[in-house]
Write a structure and sequence with these properties.
Layout (H helix, E strand, L loop, with lengths): L1 H9 L12 E3 L2 E3 L3 E3 L8 H9 L4 E8 L8 H6 L10 E5 L3 H13 L4 E6 L4 H4 L11 H15 L6 E8 L7 H11 L3 E8 L11 H9 L4 E4 L5 H11 L3 E4 L9 H11 L8 H36 L5 H8 L5 H18 L19
Parallel strand pairs: 3-4, 3-10, 4-5, 5-6, 6-7, 7-8, 8-9, 9-10
Antiparallel strand pairs: 1-2
This protein binds flavin mononucleotide.
Flavin mononucleotide binds next to strand 4.
């Protein structure tokens, strides 16, 4: 027990109300230290805003390519749209060429980015075939040259640069520590580490020793990421890594209130009650309205299905409802069906069952 207590005390913000334990990235003060991870195809502006409203202290955008010819594409311009987003607006960029990455950083700064995050974490083929994302960890000089070029390009704008990476390329090549020190020297102001190697994809389990080693070696803030699916796991990861903050990805899909659940548990050691069905209904319907507004009728209805499926996961009748969702092709009908599903649920119980939505599916990145 003493060992566990000691480990918890090592975790720098355990026992402090996270809401009153802000953290800075450059000039930006973040509301707390429980962050939403960037997930291409998931953490668009509506979802990021939802996570923020449910207590995420910070949310990074889906990655934007450094390839100039794609900047005017609908996908990239949607990703670069930050209308109404609470600051700081953080844009993640991915690419393989230092000059192009520097140019992409400035392009996004000119469109409202207040923090630029470099993606060295994504294992998606589309990214890795071009040696971007986590594949860059294999080419240390190039990875550091990219970080330096982006830092130098952002400095005149007063925009801090952060970076997200994995623990290494493969089990035999876990170079996060060496790279972290080099990135710190290059002027990167915060590092997020997903506790898997590139080779692992999303398989196996995240490990936290490498994150702890990086945290012990650098002076800039370190954010621990990977497989944090519950308040208890959040506390464990903090204790194991001593990280300055936590980042949550898949477990927030369909369960954006996980941020406040974790923040509350870390601050008090007690669990919040599951959310009221009425609150979830309101949040999901507001999410759908924002989603349709960003994507339009055709794409909006289709891309909303995965979010709806995540929300109803583990709920009574959720599986059948998800199947039915796939046959509905109009936003008004989709919206009404979701409202009716949660009205039915509200007649049965005030609050969501505790296990609802807990299993975080391992999803292939759509990046
Ligand atoms: C669908 C999906 C898309 C992702 N897209 C990105 C991305 O664009 N940039 C990035 O750095 N990481 C991306 N990731 C990785 C997540 O940010 C995170 O590091 C990973 O999911 C591990 O955290 P988790 O276990 O909390 O989900 C993505 C993950 C998923 C599942």
């Amino acid at each position: 027990m003493a060992e566990i207590a000691q480990a918890y005390n090592r975790a720098s913000f355990f026992g402090n109300p996270l809401a009153s334990s802000p953290m800075n990235i450059g000039p930006h003060s973040l509301a707390n230290r429980v962050f939403a991870a960037p997930m291409a195809g998931v953490t668009d502006r509506p979802f990021r805003q939802l996570c923020r409203s449910f207590g995420a202290g910070y949310a990074v955008s889906e990655m934007v390519t450094s390839r100039r010819e794609l900047w005017n594409s609908l996908k990239t311009s949607r990703r670069a749209n930050h209308e109404g987003e609470p600051g700081p607006v953080a844009v993640q960029i991915a690419g393989t060429d230092a000059a192009m990455m520097a140019e992409a950083a400035v392009y996004n700064v000119e469109r409202g980015a207040q923090i630029i995050d470099i993606n060295l974490g994504c294992p998606a083929k589309k990214v890795c075939n071009k040696w971007a994302g986590s594949a860059l960890m294999q080419d240390e000089p190039l990875a550091v040259a990219i970080a330096q070029a982006v830092v130098d390009a952002c400095a005149p704008h007063g925009v801090p640069v952060t970076l997200k990476m994995r623990t290494g390329w493969s089990r035999e090549h876990r170079n996060a520590l060496r790279l972290a020190l080099a990135f710190e020297r290059a002027g990167v102001q915060m590092l997020t580490i997903h506790g898997r190697t590139r080779e692992q994809g999303y398989g196996g389990c995240a490990e936290y020793e490498t994150i702890a080693a990086v945290k012990a070696a650098v002076r800039i803030p370190v954010v621990a990421n990977g497989d944090i699916t519950s308040p208890e796991k959040a506390r464990e990861v903090l204790a194991a890594t001593g990280a300055d903050a936590l980042m949550i990805g898949r477990a927030a899909q369909g369960r954006p209130w996980i941020f406040r659940e974790i923040a509350h548990f870390l601050a008090t050691g007690e669990h919040l009650a599951p959310p009221l069905v009425a609150e979830v209904r309101r949040a999901l319907l507001a999410h759908l309205e924002d989603h349709y507004a960003l994507y339009g009728e055709f794409t909006g209805v289709r891309s909303a299905r995965k979010h709806i499926g995540w929300y109803v996961r583990g709920l009574p009748g959720g599986d059948a409802f998800r199947t039915r969702m796939n046959t509905i092709e109009e936003s008004t009908a989709q919206f009404a069906a979701v409202a009716a599903f949660f009205d039915g649920l509200a007649r049965e119980a005030d609050r969501l069952p505790r296990a609802a939505g807990v299993a975080a599916d391992v999803v292939e990145s759509e990046a």
